[in-house]
TrEMBL record:
GO biological process, one term: lipid metabolic process
Protein name per its UniProtKB record: Phosphatidylinositol-specific phospholipase C X domain-containing protein
Assigned keywords, A-Z: Signal
Phosphatidylinositol-specific phospholipase C X domain: residues covered: 48-184
Length: 298
C-alpha cells in the first residue's frame, strides 16, 4: 500500500507539473526544429485494428510536404520528410516533375529538386524501421511531361511488394510496412481520393471563413469515411494572390488555424466516439495537433 501511495503521489505531482505549470504549453503550430518527448509514440498505427479499412482511419498529413524553402509565400512546412514521419504524419503530398528520364520532387517555386527515387527510398527506410506503419503517398504531376510521371513511377515500382498501387481499398493489416499510392486525375496508381475542398478553397481572406469551411469539410469527411476512396480535407491555405490579404502567408494562417483546429478536434472527439475524419493535410502542424488527430481513432 505504501508504495502505491507514494507512486500515486509522484504521479499527481508530475501531472501538476505537466498541466498546471503553464510552462509546458501544447504545441499546435510549429516552425521550430522537431523535438519529440522521450515517451513519444512514433509507431501509432500499431494500435489500429488489422481489419480497419485505410479509408476509415483519421490520418494526419501535410499539404505540399516538401515546401520547406522559397520564402514566406512558398513555405508550408519546417520539418523535413523524416521528421514529419517521426512526428506521426502518414499522408504525404509530393509535387513531381519528369525531366528527361528522371523524376524530381519539386520544393515550391525554388529550383532545388530531390529525386523521387531518393524520397521514396527514405519513406521505405522509415517503414523498414517502423513496420506496423503505412504511409499514404499522393503524387501530383506538375509542369510539363505530366503523363510521363505515372509511366516512370510505374516502371520504378514494378513488382515492388512494399507499395500498394491497386485501386481497391486495403485494410490496415494488408499494408503495414507499405507505401499506399493515392490516385487522382493525372496520376492513376493506387486508391482513389475524394477531396472535400472545392476549387479555390485554399485562397483565404478571412480566418473566420476558413474555420467555417474546415468545419464543414470535416463534417462531410466524417460522413464519407470508410468507403472506396480516401477522404482528404485541408486546414492549409493562403491569402497570397489577393491584393488585400498578401500578408496572410501559409505560415501566418497556420499560426491562427492550427490551435483552432486542435480545439475543434478536442470537442469533436468528446461528442463523437468511434468517428473518423479521413486525412487532414496541414501546414506547420505541431505535435499536439498531430496527436489530437491520432486520438480520434481511439
Ligand atoms: C508491431 O506490432 C506488434 C504487435 O503489437 C508488436 O509486437 C511489434 O513490436 C511491432 N513492430 C514494430 C517494428 O514496431
Amino acid at each position: 500500500m505504501k508504495t502505491t501511495g507514494r507512486y500515486l503521489f509522484a504521479h499527481l505531482y508530475m501531472s501538476v507539473l505537466h498541466f498546471g505549470g503553464g510552462f509546458c504549453q501544447d504545441e499546435y503550430f510549429s516552425d521550430n526544429a522537431l523535438q519529440l518527448p522521450e515517451s513519444y509514440k512514433i509507431g501509432w498505427m500499431e494500435a489500429i485494428d488489422d481489419a480497419k479499412f485505410i479509408s476509415d482511419i483519421t490520418i494526419p498529413g501535410t499539404h505540399d510536404t516538401m515546401a520547406l524553402y522559397g520564402g514566406p509565400a512558398a513555405e508550408c512546412q519546417v520539418w523535413d520528410l523524416w521528421d514529419q514521419l517521426r512526428a506521426g504524419i502518414r499522408y504525404l503530398d509530393l509535387r513531381v516533375v519528369a525531366l528527361e528520364n528522371k523524376l524530381y520532387v519539386v520544393h515550391g517555386i525554388v529550383n532545388q529538386h530531390k529525386s523521387f527515387f531518393a524520397v521514396l527510398n527514405m519513406i521505405k527506410g522509415f517503414l523498414s524501421e517502423f513496420r506496423n506503419e503505412t504511409v499514404l503517398l499522393r503524387v501530383k504531376p506538375e509542369l510539363f511531361g505530366k503523363n510521363n510521371v505515372e509511366k516512370q513511377v510505374s516502371k520504378m515500382i514494378n513488382d515492388d511488394e512494399t507499395v500498394w498501387v491497386k485501386s481497391d481499398m486495403p485494410t490496415m493489416g494488408k499494408v503495414r510496412g507499405k507505401v499506399v499510392f493515392i490516385q487522382k486525375s493525372s496520376f492513376r496508381l493506387g486508391v482513389p481520393l475524394l477531396e472535400t475542398d472545392n476549387q479555390g478553397d485554399y485562397k483565404v481572406s478571412l480566418i473566420a471563413d476558413k474555420e467555417k469551411k474546415i468545419g464543414k469539410h470535416l463534417r462531410q469527411a466524417s460522413e464519407q469515411c470508410g468507403g472506396n476512396s480516401v477522404i482528404l480535407s485541408y486546414s492549409s491555405g493562403t491569402g497570397i494572390g489577393k491584393p488585400l490579404t498578401m500578408h496572410l502567408t501559409p505560415k501566418k494562417l497556420a499560426v491562427k488555424i492550427n490551435p483552432w483546429l486542435a480545439q475543434y478536434l478536442g470537442q469533436f472527439s468528446i461528442i463523437h466516439t468511434k468517428a473518423c475524419l479521413g486525412v487532414v493535410a496541414m501546414d506547420f502542424p505541431g505535435i499536439d495537433l498531430i496527436q489530437r488527430l491520432i486520438k480520434i481513432n481511439h
